[in-house]
Amino acid sequence: MKSIKTIHSLLLCALLLCPIIQADSTQPESSFENQSEITLTPEQKAEFIKIIEFAEKAINKSFSSLQKIENVLTEVALLVRKGNLQLPVTELQNIMTVITENKMMVNALLKSQTDIAESQDPAMYLEYSHLITEFCNTFIPYFNEQIKNNFKNAKPFDLKHFVTNMNKNK
């Protein structure tokens, strides 16, 4: 169980740091030093403010969706614990292990919310919003399929596969 936590933590780090590393590596450091202050027209300022507000709303909605997934995982875990599934104890334990691992993964993503919010970087908000939205769009069908099949041969969400696909699509 400890090795699984370590693997999930490493994959989560890779998942969260890929966009940051790519963004940092595409812009030379010296360009920051050579930039002078740019003056914006009132229209440009208003547009810039709209973009910032959009980025903030996007990241908040992404984390809200992630929180809803965590809530559903908790509700399903409670139903399994109450014995609503008429399955042998060993299968119920396997289901609880899968749900617990998925909850740990989602909670690890949720814990990054404070750090992302503190950055106050609209570009980072959009990057993470995209990443979290893609995670949700992949996780929801996976979990729906698990429920539909009564967790037969249930396996934790494959974060490594998700990260690989995200990097292929860039």
Give the helix/strand layout.
Layout: H1 2-26, H2 30-34, H3 42-81, H4 89-111, H5 113-119, H6 122-148, H7 159-168
Helix pairs in contact: 1-4, 1-6, 1-7, 3-4, 3-6
Features:
170 residues
How much strand? Answer: under 5%
The radius of gyration computed from the alpha-carbon positions, rounded to a whole number of angstroms, is 20 Å
- Give the helices and strands as they follow along the chain: HHHHHHH
The tally of helices reads 7
Overview of this structure, please?
By secondary structure, this protein is mostly helical. It contains seven helices and no strands. The longest helix is centred in the middle third of the chain and has 40 residues, at about 40-80. It is elongated.
